[in-house]
């Protein structure tokens, strides 16, 4: 079974099994090196968003 998550960053499709929903492979931040602050990742066009 699939689950749809609506967020400010887009719509995501997850896999639901045994009462647990998994949203795998979503990159949410990036770090250039160990001491730099994290930066949000632009996920548009990544193929992770659910298409209707």
Automatic annotation (TrEMBL):
Lineage of the organism: Eukaryota, Fungi, Dikarya, Ascomycota, Pezizomycotina
Name of the protein this chain belongs to: Uncharacterized protein
Highest rank taxon of the organism: Eukaryota
Originating organism: Phaeosphaeria nodorum (strain SN15 / ATCC MYA-4574 / FGSC 10173)
């Amino acid at each position: 079974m699939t689950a749809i998550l609506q967020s400010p960053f887009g719509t995501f499709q997850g896999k639901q099994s045994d009462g647990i929903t998994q949203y795998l492979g979503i990159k949410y931040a990036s770090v250039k090196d160990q001491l730099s602050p994290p930066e949000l990742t632009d996920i548009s066009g990544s193929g992770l968003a659910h298409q209707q």
